[in-house]
Amino acid sequence: MSEGNGNSAYGRKAFKRSSSHFTDRITADGRGGRPVEAGRYRLIASRACPWASRALVSRRLLGLEDALSLGVVDPVQDDRSWRFTLDPEGRDPVLGIRYLSEAYDAREPEYPGGVSVPAIVDVPSGKLVTNDYQQLTLDLATEWKALHRKGAPDLYPAGLRDEIDEVMADIYEDVNNGVYRAGFATGQKEYETACAGVFHRLELLGQRLADRRHLVGDTITEADIRLFTTLVRFDAVYHGHFKCNRWKLAEHPVLWAYARDLYQTPGFGDTVDFDHIKRHYYQVHTGINPTGIVPLGPDLADWLTPHHRERLGGRPFGDGTPPGPVREDEEIPAQGRP
């Protein structure tokens, strides 16, 4: 997600998601000059951002915490965008920078585009490597395998990739990006088209998930991660803030149970910070919420209620195992959890 000086313009100009400008890949064989190497790179993410949250979930499921360090930015930006004000002295403790833009500038001085997360930075040079949110997690699942924990799930199994890609393409167009097109629409027709597309796709996904526990195959895949990061934000921000309010997620029996199933699965809910999510959307998007008031609701306790999706079978981690406890330095503060 890219933010910055234009926050007040959201809802007043046509919305178009920018493509990733820095698309270097970090690969097992080092083709292109970026080899996978434990400790060399740092993932910079916002727990507020659904695009960055994909990487947080993948990193934890795959057990890459020791191999790929994590920097978490403040959910509320100033005019220089993502900042490290959550860290002592307002600096990332590994990179030593105050703003993520400094890593962008080190890579390409006076880069004219937005500063987005997730981003991977090369620690020795301090230069941005990639902000390609679409490819980044696929590479974590495939190119970083030598550093995966024992028992890590296969999030992008070779035999299912065509189906996973097809499902993810529909989710991206109508759901992941659709909520933004609705929320940042500048006219009634534009909004209604986008909003209708969101709920049409959600209904189709609900039908797909009515008799299967996961989107593709019988295990968790990248497709589930990409849908989850939108669903977990739906009632908290998209329903009200983005006017995607034909119904709440909690009113759809299948999708609500599916989302709770994933939330309660190690690696998903333990990466979610509802406090960051709500403060970011309601305080940063001043073009559509000029008061900056953050609503008190919804009640988050229901995320922990039984979902009964295990009755559908499936093996969330396949032949593997769940990740272990969250590292102490990465635990979500109490105000961000149900």
How would you explain this protein's 3D organization?
This protein is of the alpha+beta class and 338 residues long. It is 33% helix and 6% strand. It is built from 9 helices and 6 strands. Strand 5 and strand 6 form a beta hairpin. Helix 1 runs parallel beside helix 3 and helix 7 crosses helix 8. The mean pLDDT is 95.
| Helical residue percent band | 25-40%
Secondary-structure class: alpha+beta
Largest sheet, described in full? 4 strands, mixed
Order of neighbouring strands in the sheet with most strands: 3-2-5-6
Overall pLDDT level: 95
Radius of gyration: 19 Å
Strand content: 5-15%
What coarse outline follows from CA principal-axis ratios? globular
Spans of at least 5 consecutive residues with low confidence: none
Distance between the termini: 25 Å
Structure summary, number of beta strands: 6
- Count of helical segments? 9
- Secondary-structure element sequence? EEHEHEEEHHHHHHH
Gist of the model:
With 338 residues, this protein is α+β, with helices and mostly antiparallel strands. Helices cover 33% and strands 6% of the residues. The strands form 2 sheets. The protein has a 4-stranded mixed β-sheet with strand order 3-2-5-6, sandwiched between helices.
Question: Which tags fit this structure?
Answer:
single chain, four-stranded mixed β-sheet, two-stranded antiparallel ribbon, 33% helix
How are the secondary structure elements laid out?
Elements: E1 2-3, E2 41-45, H1 50-62, E3 69-72, H2 101-107, E4 115-116, E5 119-122, E6 127-130, H3 133-142, H4 161-176, H5 178-183, H6 188-209, H7 222-238, H8 253-263, H9 274-284
Parallel strand pairs: 2-3
Antiparallel strand pairs: 1-4, 2-5, 5-6
Helix pairs in contact: 1-3, 1-7, 4-6, 4-7, 7-8
